[in-house]
Design a protein that fits this description.
The chain has about 425 residues and is mainly alpha-helical. It contains 18 helices and six strands. The chain has three domains: about 5-65, Single Sheet (Rubrerythrin, domain 2), CATH 2.20.28; about 75-265 and about 375-400, Citrate Synthase, domain 1 (Orthogonal Bundle); about 265-375, Orthogonal Bundle (Cytochrome p450-Terp, domain 2), CATH 1.10.230. A three-stranded antiparallel beta sheet has the order 1-2-3, with no helix packed on it. A three-stranded antiparallel beta sheet has the order 4-5-6. A hairpin with a 4-residue loop joins strand 4 (about 55-60) and strand 5 (about 65-70). The longest helix is centred in the middle third of the chain and has 27 residues, at about 155-180. It is globular and about 80 Å long. The protein starts with a strand and ends in a 27-residue tail after the last helix. The relative contact order is 0.12. The mean pLDDT is about 90.
Length: about 425
Amino acid sequence: MGDVANLKLEERTEELPIITGTENERAIDISKLRASTGYITLDEGYVNTGSVASQITYLDGEKGILRYRGYAIEDIVANCDFIETAYLLIYGELPSGEQLTNFRAALRQHTLLHEDVRSFYNGFPRDAHPMAILSAVVGALSTFYQDSLDPSDAEQVEISVLRLLAKLPTIAAFSHKKSIGHPFHYPRNDLSYCENFLQMMFAVPTEPYEMDPDFVEALNFLLMVHADHEQNCSTSTVRMVGSSDANIFASISAGICALWGPLHGGANQACVEMLEHIVADGGNIGKYVDMAKDRNNPFRLMGFGHRVYKNHDPRATLIRDTCDKLLKKIDQPDPIFDVAKELEEVALQDPYFVEKKLYPNVDFYSGVIYRAIGIPIQMFTVLFAMGRLPGWIAHWKEMHASPTKRICRPRQVYMGPTARTFVPIEKR
């Protein structure tokens, strides 16, 4: 018999199996606890609860380790592009040269949106948040591809995967063009994934669009480091919605909504908004550092520290070099960048921040990079969604392939009123 944990309940002791992962993570299996004892566990936010045994991403917050399918994130960003990373996450192995060529070709076949989708954009107000548009249009794809909604049909799933990966940049870029009143730019299949997105974002009919290769490289880099991050809020949402056998478009749409929150994907937007506020207030870094140190002050420095990483975020370490490279090439000074650099120096040197492990995280650097590229602040989280899409797809597929798949149904501890006698309205 394997290792067990002994749980003492009243006059009895319950043996619970201990599960060991491939990286020696230990978990107590409580899947039969309620059936055998009548008890459940209470874990607000599921921070101590493993909802799934997954083979996709390994994360060690204490040691600052992030691996996609066993490959270190450092090796991924040094040797792959976003499409190769997506293939790895979705299919479990690095592609051969032929497989990668065929995958790229298949994606190029699906970049166009149905022309009727364009009418959706006419119905949104001009100031609609792009994340709202993104989630709505992705969900609406279910109506355009009703022949490929069965999650148990491998062929239908495959075509849906290609459609999602290929069309999301188009959907995203169109939402930006809508917000500024510019005509939509159709995708160009002669360009790479990131090049195509940037030309759809920034090209105008009146003049040629000159692609900056450093911007392309930076965008490709950011998409890779955001491609998956284990069981975060949005990924768990995709799995939970998909567990009901909801189609992949509906599941991804739900994940986009979860990502929108300022405590998740919206953190990079919140970070730049904080920097803008500091600049507008005179750029006094010391004032805001002191506010952040004051326990009685509700102010918090956005983009610092991480809920999972306790020593350093490996993604932030990688992004920092890209961030520095872009800032050096920008000719026009921007006070936002100056404030960001000062805050970074404080966080890396000030004893308070070092002790509290409040180092700049991936949201801090990514927001600054997006601004340097020229991405509007409302599009920051949209870019996060583009990067996270392969991870969402991989988890959705893994869930459906699992022989132990079941619909997600968390329990609760009820704390409301006990049974009450109903009072007719005339007697209340």
